Amino acid sequence: MQQKHSLRQVFNAFDLFPLSVSSIGPVFSIAATGGVMAALAGIWTLGAILALAIPFIISGLVLKTLNKHFPNAGASYHWSARIMGKSMSRFQAWILIIAYFTSIPPIAIPAANYTLALVAPKMASNNFVVVFTCLGWLAFAMVPLLLGAKPTSNITKVFFGLEIVFLIFFTVLGLVKFHLLHVPIHTHGFPIKGFVITMVVAATILDGWEIDSFAAEESMRPRKDPGFSGLVGLGLGLLFYALIYPMLFLEVPINHLANSTDPLNIWSERLLGSHSFIMLIPIIGSTAGGLWLTTYILTRALYAMGRDNVIPQSFSRVNSRQVPVFGTVLVIGLTALVVIVETFITSLSGFFNLILSSAGFFLLAEFFLDNLSCCVFLFYAHKKLPDVQLHPHDHRYLKFFSILSCIIILSIMIAFFMFAPRSIGNGIDQTVTTLLIGGIIFAFITKGRHEIKLAELRDHESSLATTKVLNG
Question: Per the CB 3.0–4.6 Å rule, which of 126, 268, 286, 304 could disulfide with 279?
Answer without folding.
Answer: 268
